[in-house]
Amino acid sequence: MPNAVPALRSVAALPQPYLLFLGDTTEAGYAKTAFGLRDWAGGRCVGEYACADATVTTGLPFLSPAQARLAGARAMVIGVANPGGRIPAAWLPLLVEALQAGLDLIGGMHARLSAIESLRNVALAHGRRLIDVREPPADLPVASGRKRSGRRLLTVGTDCALGKKYTALALAREFRARGIDADFRASGQTGILIAGQGIPMDAVVADFAAGAAETLSPDADPAHWDLIEGQGSLSHPAYAGVSLALLHGSQPDVVVVCHEYGRERVLGHPDYLLPSLEETIDLVLRLGARTNPAIRCAGISLNTGKLEEAEALRAMGEIAARLGLPAADPIRGGDAFARLVDSCLA
Amino acid sequence: MPNAVPALRSVAALPQPYLLFLGDTTEAGYAKTAFGLRDWAGGRCVGEYACADATVTTGLPFLSPAQARLAGARAMVIGVANPGGRIPAAWLPLLVEALQAGLDLIGGMHARLSAIESLRNVALAHGRRLIDVREPPADLPVASGRKRSGRRLLTVGTDCALGKKYTALALAREFRARGIDADFRASGQTGILIAGQGIPMDAVVADFAAGAAETLSPDADPAHWDLIEGQGSLSHPAYAGVSLALLHGSQPDVVVVCHEYGRERVLGHPDYLLPSLEETIDLVLRLGARTNPAIRCAGISLNTGKLEEAEALRAMGEIAARLGLPAADPIRGGDAFARLVDSCLA
User: Fold this and answer.
1) Number of domains comprising chain B
2) Which residues in chain B touch residue A246, judged by CB atoms under 8 angstroms apart?
3) ipTM value of the model?
């Protein structure tokens, strides 16, 4: 996705293109960030780099930091997350090499690059930056509630980790394919690395969370669309506050409700049943109307990753018929997804 | 109110009794914190201290820090907030004097005591603490959603700044007067100074806000009541996320809806009409049922401070009749307040 994002107040753009760093990773599951960047920001990734014992690859060319710099790279991104979110000592010489080659370092892990003294010293000596995307901007305002110009879509969900980021990215790509001026607005660390900018909503102080959402999708041309990555769920026992602040601050004209077919309980909170799609739509529209009375639900983004094609089509058809709204899996695309996009733009 | 609060996980108790510091204040309106402490924690305030040119007084004995220390004081509290929340240079010699006399310093202003180098040095030299109550605990968990033992009441509101803290304090006092084991749980800086402990919800990182609320009212004896100070409003364009996190994490059995009679628009957001009491009750019960399906509304706490007594009684009667719930002004007390407390305990 080409990056044609206007400058955001308080939201610095990340240095790009990227060199993707895979560490010493041998488990593909730990390299989701690198794969996400390859899939959604491939045009802004010049290659990959890794320790000698890494076995995971994105399929991009293997380049040393110096080669990557010559190919135009401006930063090396830590594209893997090992359990615990720590930065192993074995990575440090390669991180130092990148700084010495003229690349900034970007991390999205819990452990902050800027907390490692040796990296700080090398970065200082070479005039390079250590950028932790989980660090929110320092000057976020309290939300004003003022209506902004331009159009906005927010992906919301019945739970965490079921496709809100992917849906917003897929919708942004399809909007642009139809010639519409549209930007993906990232609210979590992987999304921020893909978009090159954004605000990590989960790290913002609670009083400024709705203000952060306002900052994330500023005034725009009346025909412009922001496709905003949702977080959590209004029914989540831990994260509903973040979801509500994001909903109020985003002032969406349109929401798309994301759900994983067959998921019945909140991830990590098995005592909590997932709300129904009907209940989720009703709650989102009721609460969202507070800052945008014209809010509407355009349809359902259904994660059917665990189903066969025929089952997936049947599931989408059944939900679409029940709700009277389009239901599509953005990964499968097809006519159903086209109808969902039509409904967003209606 | 005597402090019989059991130790809270992660929530340190403040050193008490207090000496109240009034700075160089000549406007009573700036000394709300000192007056609140006198009114609600008078038994834990040994006296007041101020610059020579201050004219505001709480009526408590004027004591030097050394005299206060002899009278049992363990900390001097900054009881005034001047516009901008700064600490003027004229206060510094008196703050230093308190540290030298063996008192800790406690502040609730935006400006942090610990950011002032001269105070840090004196505190270090004398083994004293600089305590900023707007600093949340460092080890707050993500909310679990697990049902906790004991009973809980949360004050909620149609807006900010209309009596949620005062209502929770008045209910805690009345519960105790009736022989019920009850604690006020503070979620804002003035409440924290009054209770001697608590968590400043407005300063917690969004992902941990519901977890902070769970920490604030831990498991307790089945007959014990926590009376939890509410924040913001579920309909507030900037703070609804904080309110929802506090509602979900508090898991209240009972809510009391606080409203200022005659207020029609959100404070500081004049484009936003206040929600009706009916709408507020409906929304609170619907959202609160997610973590406590047995939640109920016991009645309305009506701030009638701008009305004459006869008007106030008529307003309370009218609202009580309309909603079929008790409506009372805790400041006026009387039969109406007794009925509200009866309803909370029903």
Assistant:
1) 2
2) 241
3) 0.92
Cβ pair B240:A244 closer than 8 A: yes
- Asked if A161 is an interface residue toward chain B (Cβ–Cβ < 8 A), one would say no
State residue B86 phi and psi, 5-degree precision: -90, 165
Contact: A244, B244; criterion CB under 8 Å: yes
Name the maximum alpha-carbon separation found in chain A. Answer: 62
Q: Would you state the pLDDT for residue A12?
A: 64
Establish if B39 belongs to a structural domain: yes
**Do both B200 and B112 map to the same domain?**
no
Q: What is the CATH number of the domain that holds B98?
A: 3.40.50.720
Here the CATH number for the domain that contains residue B261 is 3.40.50.300
**Chain CA centroid to CA B79, Å:** 14
Instruction: Report the amino acid identity of residue A203.
Output: A
Domain co-membership, B316 together with B196: yes
In chain B (346 residues long), the average pLDDT of successive 10-residue segments reads 34 87 93 93 96 96 98 96 84 97 92 93 96 90 97 98 96 97 96 95 94 97 98 97 98 98 96 98 98 98 97 98 98 97 98
**Closest A-chain CA to B241:** A241
A186 and A296 belong to one structural domain? yes
Interface check for A271 against chain B (CB to CB < 8 A): the answer is yes
Is residue B110 one of the residues assigned to a domain?
A: yes
A183 vs chain B: nearest CA distance in angstroms? 24
Q: Does B269 sit within 8 Å of A145, measured CB to CB?
A: yes
Angstrom distance (rounded) from CA A203 to CA B156: 25
Distance CA A209, CA A212 (A): 5
On whether both B72 and B124 belong to a single domain, the answer is yes
Please report whether residue A137 resides in a domain.
Answer: no
User: Which residues in chain A are closer than 8 Å to B287, comparing Cβ atoms?
Assistant: 234, 240
Chain B residues touching A144 at Cβ < 8 A: 237-238, 269
Predicted local distance difference test score (pLDDT) of residue B81: 84
Number of H helices, E strands in chain B: 11, 13
Q: Is A237 close to B244, i.e. CB distance below 8 A?
A: no
A interface test, pick of B140, B156, B205, B243 with most A CB neighbours within 10 Å: B205
- Domain with A248 in it: 151-345
What would the two tokens of residue B25 be? 């204040």
- Report the distance separating Cα A136 and Cα B44, nearest Å: 39
| Measured distance CA(A34)–CA(A41) in Å, rounded | 10
Q: In chain B, what residues touch A244 (CB-CB under 8 Å)?
A: 234, 240-241, 244
pLDDT at A275 > cutoff 90: yes
A169 in the same domain as A49: no
Is residue A206 scored above 50 in pLDDT? yes
> Could you say which of B204, B205, B240 has the minimum Cβ distance to residue A248?
B240
Last residue of a domain, one of B132, B163, B187: B132
Domain co-membership, B200 together with B273? yes
Look up the pTM and report it. 0.93
Which residues, listed in sequence order, are joined to residue B77 by a DSSP beta bridge?
B20, B106
Same domain? For A120 and A161 the reply is no
A12 located within any domain: no
A71-84 pLDDT, tens digit per residue, is 999 999 999 987 77
A-B CB pairs within 8 A amount to 122
At A130-189, the pLDDT tens digits run 999 999 998 899 999 999 999 999 999 999 999 999 999 999 999 999 999 999 999 999
- Asked if A204 has any chain B CB less than 8 Å from its own CB, the reply is yes
Q: Which neighbouring-strand residues pair with B78?
A: B21
Cross-chain Cβ contact B271/A209 below 8 Å = no
Do residues B215 and B107 both lie within one domain? Answer: no
Contact (CB, 8 A) for B98 and B65: yes
